[in-house]
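tool_call predict_complex ligand=flavin-adenine dinucleotide
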Amino acid sequence: MRPFDVVVIGGGFAGLSAAAALTSSGARVLLLEARPALGGRASAFVDPATGEQVDNGQHLMLGCYHETFEFLARIGASDLVHVQPSLEVPFVDPAGCQTTLWCPPLPSPLHLLAGLVEWDALGFRDRMSAFSLAAPIRRAQRVLRTGKGRLPASPGETVENWLIRNGQTRRLRDMLWEPLALAALNQSAQEAAAPAFLGVLARMLGPGPTDSAVAVPLRPLTEVYADPACEFIRASGGEIRVSSPARVRVEGDRVTGIEVRSERIDAPAVIVAVPWFALAETFVGQVGALADLLSAAGAVAASPIVTVNLWFDRGVLPAPFIGLPGRTFQWVFDKRQVFGDSASHLSCVSSGAAAVVARSNEALAARAYDELVTALPAARAARLLRSLVVRERRATFSLAPGQPPRPGTRTPVRGLLLAGDWVDTGLPATIEGAVVSGHRAAQSFFL
Ligand SMILES: Cc1cc2nc3c(=O)[nH]c(=O)nc-3n(C[C@H](O)[C@H](O)[C@H](O)COP(=O)(O)OP(=O)(O)OC[C@H]3O[C@@H](n4cnc5c(N)ncnc54)[C@H](O)[C@@H]3O)c2cc1C
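tool_result ok
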């Protein structure tokens, strides 16, 4: 058998997208995943009580996740994600008023402006205030396109301060920008730094007709990408081993081998696609050349996500998902409407959940239920059958001002490349960030 050209460590979006790109280009790849299953922080498990596949947390994509769609197309999974024809999001505001933000299919950013003008949740001043963001967003788009200049947002400034400085009204911040910050950054506007948020806005309002649209996985996450990626990589001559925690042995500025328990594997290149919190334990030997990287990774703070899954005796949501701004659980998804007959639960999502992650399962389930039936009183008629709480304490890295710098793809060690959502792609901790990092690592292997 031909020896491996590259070993990829970590089987989440980053590692699988790197491995798929490499095998497509003819490299012989071995992917090692520590856990018994692929998927990492975007995976699904079987609920023992109902037998349903439950995601570790609802994952949404955006139409501007271009590299993610490229990856899904490569592994033959494009049709497992539904992309809205244009942005459409139903909300119930804290007073219980139901409205829908719908952006007509016009060129960007006219579609958003037209959507905001029609959105009943806003008053005249709120709508007008949105126009003040047009100039900084255009400038940010120029910076992203050319790689020249600086984003018009300071790294020491929070999203909230940046929005206030740019004239955004309280109502618009509460109804749109805070839910978007929580969904895209997993941190509230008061905590996250402004440049990451501006980067998201600039991409969402990109030239593509569906860049700002929401894309919803139509199957549990494992089926949407982990299984198809595994099949694709194996069919293209690559090898995947799960339950294989790997250690990279480093001596000075060289990788001298990869170890999985007592087995030793040699390859000229290795892509380490593990999260920041697993980095230190992935290396052994004389790791002095990686000291700065390891100390930066060790200082990264995390932001949790809590999901309460609720089973009712009937459908209770009028739409596949609804934004509930101003609540602990800011979004609710009806898996019955999204997955079809194979699921019957709702997923209530609390992003930026540091304040509640330590609460008991009973308290979290009660809060999710109360918020749901208060927002949608018709749901009170349904009988709650079961609840299941999933805590992801290190769901994403913090984007608060003052976090350590994020690393690049290349390292001071020859043949050692990094991937993972926390690598510096300019994107927040997202699927797209992970895939961009994976593709960059794959490209760097060939350079
Ligand atoms: C609940 C939740 C909801 C989210 N919602 C969204 C969303 O709506 N939209 C969005 O875009 N993003 C969302 N995210 C973020 C997204 O899931 C992550 O950004 C992305 O999955 C990270 O992928 P990754 O490959 O970089 O890392 P991971 O998924 O963490 O993968 C790394 C893999 O490396 C493995 N590993 C670690 N150490 C070793 C070792 N020594 N040897 C072998 N393997 C090892 C791990 O087991 C893991 O499988 C969410 C995250 C969570 C947790």
